[in-house]
Write a structure and sequence with these properties.
Elements lengths: L2 E4 L2 E4 L4 H11 L2 H7 L13 H4 L17 E3 L7 H17 L2 E5 L5 H15 L3 H4 L11 E4 L14 E8 L13 H25 L6 H4 L6 E8 L11 E4 L5 E6 L5 E5 L2 E4 L7 E5 L1 H6 L9 E3 L7 E8 L9 E2 L17 E2 H11 L13
Parallel strand pairs: 3-4
Antiparallel strand pairs: 1-2, 4-12, 5-6, 6-7, 7-14, 8-13, 9-12, 9-14, 10-11, 10-13, 15-16
Length: about 375
């Protein structure tokens, strides 16, 4: 097979990537189907360019001292005004300097967190023929299951399968959700919506605004819940579970299991986000960076995969995504001044998501397209 070198990577000149992508997609079995088939070499479509896989700047957990993801304890937040003020300051600092923080004692029971992870596992461990009925690339459906939302547009496929359920502002018909995880997805989503509303209050105050400001802007109006499954990988050094990206929403709340794999790009170094029992990971999305006029930061992150064991996570995205809306979002006027002029043009959530989806994971930050 003839090959050439492009950007430092070997490329077969007669390699038909589009056909290989289609063949994989047509199986409707996802990455888990490949693993179930007992493959020992990952398909070419999953191999990432070597420069995107480098761990040369990775800080391991053993090396982390003061340079670690902040953990914010919500215990007593409703009872002690002074404690609430301190928590706001901690969240403000984390949102400005990290874009990420973990929350403990957040009000969602550990039992429900474990049940949610179990529900995701039950979905993926079903017979492939049962799962296939949900496999689709129609993003207008309330329940979307597939492998790689950007399979045909991304630079390289990621080693994960996902389902995404749109839970708000319009609740799906329960019958649209898989029976094996229906009840827990609905219960978990209600609790996440409550926590999201509280977080938007605290973030509003962290911006020097009244507590209801971000909620009044409908930042917490939409919620999509994604159940990600990262199967064990025979060649983890060649691929990623999720390529480097920043989230396209206002805010993300992430439940991860105890396997680990999430990494945050902090001061140009990849830093592990170690699983903390009972904790939820919170990160600022692009749209919150945009409306805060860069005060809060949407930080790039990625997921590495494991040779020996599968990983599960549940990402809760506060955004209306593809829902039609004429509501425009730009830098909050109360934050602007002569010394702090607007840095972004206004956009709708739909327009922003469309740009993000078109480019896929691993591409240039979508925020760049909206800078003034």
């Amino acid at each position: 097979m003839a090959s050439t070198i492009i950007n430092g990577e070997p490329k077969e000149t007669n390699y038909d990537r589009a056909s290989e992508l289609k063949a994989f997609d047509d199986t409707k079995a996802g990455v888990m189907g490949l693993v179930n088939d007992g493959i020992s070499t990952i398909p070419r479509i999953f191999i990432h360019p070597s420069h995107t896989l480098s761990n040369s700047s990775l800080i391991s957990n053993a090396e982390v001292t003061t340079n670690s993801i902040p953990i914010v304890d919500f215990n007593g937040i409703e009872k002690d005004p002074n404690l609430r003020k301190r928590i706001i300051e901690e969240i403000q600092d984390a949102s400005e300097n990290w874009g990420f923080f973990q929350v403990i004692n957040h009000g969602i029971s550990i039992h429900l967190l474990e049940e949610m992870l179990d529900g995701v596992r039950r979905f993926y461990e079903q017979d492939t023929e049962v799962k296939k009925q949900y496999y689709t690339r129609n993003l207008n459906k309330n329940m979307v299951y597939n492998s790689n939302f950007d399979l045909h547009t991304g630079q390289a496929a990621n080693w994960r399968d996902s389902f995404l359920v749109r839970m708000a502002p319009h609740s799906p018909n329960p019958d649209e959700l898989p029976a094996v995880c229906r009840e827990v997805v609905m219960e978990f989503s209600k609790e996440v919506m409550k926590l999201g509303s509280l977080l938007f209050e605290l973030l509003s105050e962290g911006l020097g605004l009244k507590p209801s400001h971000l909620n009044d802007m409908y930042c917490g109006e939409g919620l999509a819940v994604a159940g990600h499954y990262y199967p064990s990988c025979p060649q983890p050094e060649l691929t990623l579970g999720a390529a480097k990206h920043a989230d396209d929403d206002f805010l993300t709340i992430l439940l991860q299991d105890q396997i680990g794999g999430l990494q945050v790009l902090h001061e140009n170094q990849w830093l592990d986000v170690p699983p903390t029992p009972g904790a939820l990971v919170v990160n600022i999305g692009d749209l919150l960076q945009l409306i805060s006029n860069d005060k809060f930061k949407s930080i790039e992150h990625r997921v590495i995969v494991n040779r020996a064991i599968s990983r599960i996570s549940v990402a809760c995205f506060f955004s209306t995504h593809l829902l039609p809306s004429t509501r425009k979002y730009g830098p909050i006027k109360e934050l602007l001044s002569e010394d702090n002029p607007p840095r972004y043009r206004e956009t709708t959530v739909h327009e922003y998501f469309t740009n993000f989806y078109k480019e896929g994971l691993g591409a240039e930050s979508t925020l760049e397209h909206f800078k003034l």
